[in-house]
Amino acid sequence: MKFSSMILLLLGGSRVATAFTKPRVLQMGTQARNRHVYATVEPTVTKEEVETTKLPDMEEIVSLCKRRGIIFPSSEIYNGFAGFFDYGPLGAELKRNIKDAWWRNFVTQREDVVGLDSSIIHNPTTWKSSGHLDGFSDPMVDCKETKLRFRADQLFYSPVILKDSGETIGYVCVQEGNDEDMVKDAKAQTKAILKAKDLKGEVEAYSFKVLVDATEEEMAQIPSPASGKPTLTMPRDFNLMFETRVGAAVDSDNIAYLRPETAQGIFINFKNVLATSRVKIPFGIAQIGK
Q1: CA-CA distances (angstroms) from residue 146 to 23, 111, 143, 220, 226?
Q2: DSSP H or E stretch at residue 128
């Protein structure tokens, strides 16, 4: 089932929900004797119907999940904390069931995979050796009007130049995608620029450049994808690792980081796992992120 189908089902769209009322049992046998029965559903709506149905926005999804006890905005009584959520009663059960099903399928039922649950804080030397400390950052820009943040290396800009006069009448800014979609978005922005300036005529072909290469003068004219106005900040590097401190003293010697990569715990424990488990290469090590 596609994500869009699940969202529509969650929101109780009667036209789609009726398609998921007849479960088909997949597995019986041992699971049935243990009173665990697994089932799936066979959707009867077409792909076109699902893709053309308007999906709800994030606020509607969060509101519904809150009403049904799936997730709650974190620290809500203190105005919340953007981007953080707490699992409610149903959400906690759902999360546990998904993790249990995943673990049972990929670890318990396989003889060539073992499990691991490593600490979320490692010695900072780990991240220095792996290259995360020096290079785990992305260039970002903020929209000063909408407060939205974008990766600067995924935005492309181009001047809009009139063919007849060679005059630059503005800039367009589009998100990374295939050439056809980028040109389509650029043409829509160009049309708005021509209308705002009361101009007519053809423009030269777009010469897209990545936003990180833009100068300050160009950034002052490049529109934000969110606001449509030149409200973007200059690109800045954002470290993607969450910094914390271990110990009572507040100094540089106590700096540590929450692991930015779940697999790193597998790499640094490989020798221990190999020495203590009755497995031979090739084998797998499974871990669920936190």
Answers
A1: 44, 51, 6, 17, 7
A2: helix 124-130
Task: Show Cβ contacts of residue 16 under 8 Å, excluding neighbours closer than 6 positions.
Answer: 5, 8, 9, 45, 49, 50, 53
Structure tokens at 152: 């600067």
Q: Say how far apart CA 176 and CA 212 lie, in whole Å.
A: 13
Residues of the chain with pLDDT under 70: 1-45, 50
Instruction: State how far the Cα of 114 lies from the Cα of 273, in Å rounded to an integer.
Output: 8
CB 169 within 8 A of CB 190: no
Q: How many CB atoms lie within 10 A of CB 214?
A: 22
Nearest-angstrom CA–CA distance, 208 and 49: 35
User: Residues 6 or more apart from 172 whose CB is under 8 A from it?
Assistant: 157, 158, 160, 185, 186, 189, 190, 193, 206, 223
Q: What pLDDT score was predicted for residue 6? A: 44
pLDDT of residue 239: 74
Number of residues that this document lists for the chain: 290
Helix (H, G, I), strand (E, B) or coil at 39: strand
Q: Which two tokens stand for residue 70?
A: 């799936």
